[in-house]
Design brief:
Blueprint: H1 6-11, H2 13-16, E1 31-33, H3 38-43, E2 49-54, H4 59-74, E3 80-85, H5 92-97, E4 105-110, E5 118-121, H6 128-137, E6 143-145, H7 151-156, E7 162-168, H8 175-183, E8 188-194, H9 198-204, E9 211-215, E10 223-224, H10 231-252, H11 284-291, E11 296-301, H12 310-321, E12 327-331, H13 337-342, E13 352-357, E14 362-365, H14 373-385, E15 391-392
Parallel strand pairs: 1-3, 2-3, 6-8, 7-8, 11-12
Antiparallel strand pairs: 2-4, 4-5, 7-9, 9-10, 11-13, 13-14, 14-15
Helix pairs in contact: 4-6, 10-11
């Protein structure tokens, strides 16, 4: 019988604890902000955000709540719909910084090129449709339009980096595709090719639309996506190549090498998005490529242990890992014997936690109180500072590396068109 995962409980005490009392429940699609997480979730996010500054006793705020939650549900995975309770003493400083004098006040934060978001008051209709219409226009566009004149340059630029290309009848990028590009900003380049670009279509052998493929990088052939044209499936498909490309890039660039005793000597990995997915680690070598030169935190759970939710994963990063370490969760039964042996793991009915650098050949076992959140925080801090005893990972076998997907040479099956943002009439 599988015991309760007490270590995960300690890891995510902050994750599973109810959020501060306010107008929106913990089950609400609205992202709940505080002064402590405002910068990480909004100011430093690559996603566009709309933020409601409210007070629970405000009648207009209560009237807005149904429409605001409906907008949040419609924008899920595309942009962030969030709120902060200005009646909470701990949040009053943040509300004051943005000059909030009345409730509800709605502001839109759009990521800027300088690293600071542009901020503007939302003056549109306070309806779900009005908020969605406006927020869709604020989604950053990191999708490159490729044609016969620019395709060579696009393919040659950062050739070691994975590239995702959508062949479509649409002239502009949809909110869904733009949101995907935001999710993988910095790790995968996104492009769109119109059906009229016959030379580019012939280059890739594309005959049907939409066709979505990923070029893994280097000389590897493109791999065509054969699932539904929905964000969850497409994101999972792209993520298979994002980690491998990042690992290859890091290995080629000595300047990105990270000191094993400091987490501040190189840029942190891309921030997880609010709907990010925790990948699995199929082999030592595959895991090494996924982590690159970074220190990773690995949580190995027994079969039947529920995976952390997207909100819990985000909270783990914010409250514990501080955006420093990539975080992975995987069931022990899915790991090879070589992997288990390499990191001192066993197939167990208990949760096991490791901080490790697969590329540098060491790992650290969590040895704190399994019920203490403070012990977990202190352990993470010691790992970050290098003040902890490391254990050596034995050499792993090359043949256990992840086998790249077989290149697809035939045109894909007819797929449903890439859907635009939620239809407004459905709001």
């Amino acid at each position: 019988m599988v015991h309760n995962p007490v270590v995960v409980a300690a890891l995510s005490a902050a994750l599973l604890a109810p959020l501060a009392a306010g107008m929106y429940s913990s089950n609400s699609p609205v992202i709940q902000l505080t002064s402590k997480n405002f910068a990480e979730k909004v100011l430093k996010s690559n996603h566009a955000s709309v933020v409601e500054f409210y007070a629970p006793w405000c009648g207009h705020c209560k009237n807005l709540k149904p429409a605001y939650e409906k907008a949040a549900e419609n924008m899920k995975g595309l942009a962030q719909v969030a709120a902060i309770d200005c009646d909470e003493d701990a949040n009053k400083r943040t509300c004051s910084e943005y000059g909030i004098q009345g409730f509800p006040t709605i502001k839109v934060f759009k990521p800027g090129k300088s690293g600071k978001p542009s901020i503007q008051d939302y003056q549109g209709p306070r309806t779900a449709k009005g908020i969605v219409d406006y927020l869709i226009e604020q989604i950053p566009n990191h999708v490159t339009r490729v044609n016969s004149k620019t395709v060579d340059g696009f393919l040659k630029e950062k050739n070691e980096t994975a590239k995702a290309i959508l062949f479509t009848t649409k002239g502009v990028a949809t909110p869904l595709f733009k949101a995907l590009a935001v999710d993988f900003l910095g790790s995968v380049a996104f492009a769109q090719v119109r059906d009229k670009e016959t030379e580019v279509l012939q280059l890739f052998g594309v005959e049907k639309f939409p066709t979505f493929l990923v070029l893994p990088g280097g000389t590897a052939e493109g791999v065509i996506y054969d699932g539904e044209m929905k964000k969850e499936g497409m994101a999972k498909f792209v993520s298979k190549f994002a980690g491998a490309a990042a690992g290859k890039s890091a290995a080629k660039d000595e300047k990105t090498a990270e000191s094993s005793t400091s987490s501040t000597s190189s840029a942190p990995p891309p921030r997880p998005t609010f709907d990010s997915t925790i990948p699995e680690a199929p082999s030592l070598e595959g895991f090494a490529a996924t982590c690159g030169n970074k220190i990773c935190v690995l949580v190995v759970t027994p079969d039947g242990t529920p995976a952390l939710t997207a909100q819990e994963k985000t909270n783990f990063y914010v409250n514990h890992v501080k955006q420093t370490f990539p975080f992975f969760q995987v069931q022990g039964s899915k790991l090879s014997p070589e992997f288990l042996k390499g990191f001192g793991l066993t197939v167990s009915d208990k949760v096991q936690v490791r901080a490790l650098s697969a590329k540098r050949g060491w790992y650290v076992e969590y040895d704190g109180d399994s019920t203490s959140e403070e012990d977990m925080k202190a352990w993470i801090d010691r790992v970050k500072m290098g003040e902890i005893r490391k254990q050596k990972i034995p050499p792993f076998e090359k043949e256990e590396a992840v086998t790249p997907p077989e290149p697809v040479k035939e045109a894909p099956k007819e797929e449903e068109p890439v859907k635009e943002a939620p239809k407004h009439e459905e709001l």
